[in-house]
Amino acid sequence: VRLVESGGGLVQPGGSLRLSCVASGFSVSSYPMSWHRQAPGKERELVAGISITGGRTNYADSVKGRFTISRDNAKNTVFLQMNSLTPEDTAVYYCFAFRSGPNWGQGTQVTVSS
Residue 94: CB partners within 8 Å, gap ≥ 6? Predict the structure, then answer.
């Protein structure tokens, strides 16, 4: 099982980024998927989750209305569209799936700064 995130980078406040998480070794269509983030000196926190069917999503209060999680089962990929970014969104973002135990990607750095 492998999860590989990409799409992070440096963006100005108010900007947007789209993170991707490509899975291998299992099908994302068979498991709930989620994005988490960890800022320096802080605990890792859940940002967004999506159900197996994609019909249900949940978000941290701090990102509701700005972030959107989605999945493309044909590409075995989960996305996180992030809009109206603020410096408080600066963190390493991780993709997560629970399959025979917790599975994390290596993370992708998102830095929001002017």
Answer: 5, 35, 36, 37, 38, 44, 104, 105, 107
pLDDT at position 108: 98
Contact 58, 49 (CB under 8 A): yes
Contact 35, 96 (CB under 8 A): yes
Tell me the torsion sign for CA atoms 82, 45, 9, 28. negative
At 57, which helix (H) or strand (E)?
A: strand 57-59
**Kind of pairing between the strands at 108-112 and 45-50:** unpaired
At 28-38, the pLDDT tens digits run 999 999 999 99
Burial of 96 (0-12, 13-18, 19+ CB in 10 A): buried
d(CA 45, CA 30): 23
